[in-house]
Amino acid sequence: MEQGVDKHVDLQSSSAKRMIGKVAVITGGARGIGAATAKLFTENGAYVVVADILDESGTALAESIGAYYIHCDVSKESDVESAIQLAITWKGKLDILFSNAGIGGTASSITDLDMERAKHLISINLLGNVHSIKHAARAMLRCDTKGFIICTSSSAGIMGGLASHPYSLSKAGILGLMRTAACELGVQGIRVNCISPHGVPTDMLVSGYRIFRGNEMTPEQVVKLVGEQGSLLRGKAATVEDVARAAVFLATDDASFITGHNLVIDGRYTSAIGSLSFIYK
């Protein structure tokens, strides 16, 4: 299994790398936040397995950064187990899991909720994280690795009214799962944390805005709308690179005493209702 080794080594000087020799699996890694994180992990010296159902995008990304790609539907436990096993077969260990795979939901009244669609979303967004944490923890304990597990939640898991009922449920459930897993695994040297982005203009978010607003919107328009409605940072919206940098932080020894934590990337949206800048004028 020699795919991509030369590319991996040459990405940047070793003095700038923070994750040299670390082995990571990223679910939902073919595009958006997952792809940006896969790129940044490899740039920092990690060996990455990109796991996704988007085979064409995932394969192209893996080839470009010197990673491996594997087809993985996180709602299927056996797929997740296979992705973890690929990392073990490749490098003999697993140091990092970034459990990032997820889908968006279609908004509807709770009284009209399509339960089959809701169950499908929960099987991916919530149970996919259960599968991922379960098999990553097994691998880390078997290899005696002091590993790092990161899950992607959302501002919709913290506040109501930001997304559909099933999506909000799934993202809030991830936070609860992260905390219980952190309690169990922390004593065995495995840190478990969450990242909760708000309004990152991924393909999924842009598509969601188009559906909710009933008109075509560009990523630039979504950024403008999110920035105006939900940020104290001069109208700025978070980028996929912002989230990737947070994942690198949580997956390195820079965060060695952080576990059971939800790192919110929202420009204040979930924690403040306005600016006090007028006081200081």
TrEMBL record:
Coiled coil: none annotated. The keyword Zinc does not apply. One of its GO terms (molecular function) is oxidoreductase activity. Keywords: Oxidoreductase. SUPFAM superfamilies: NAD(P)-binding Rossmann-fold domains (SSF51735). Transmembrane segments: none annotated. InterPro entries: NAD(P)-bd_dom_sf (IPR036291), SDR_fam (IPR002347). Belongs to the short-chain dehydrogenases/reductases (SDR) family. This is TAPETUM1, TAPETUM 1. It comes from Hibiscus trionum (Flower of an hour).
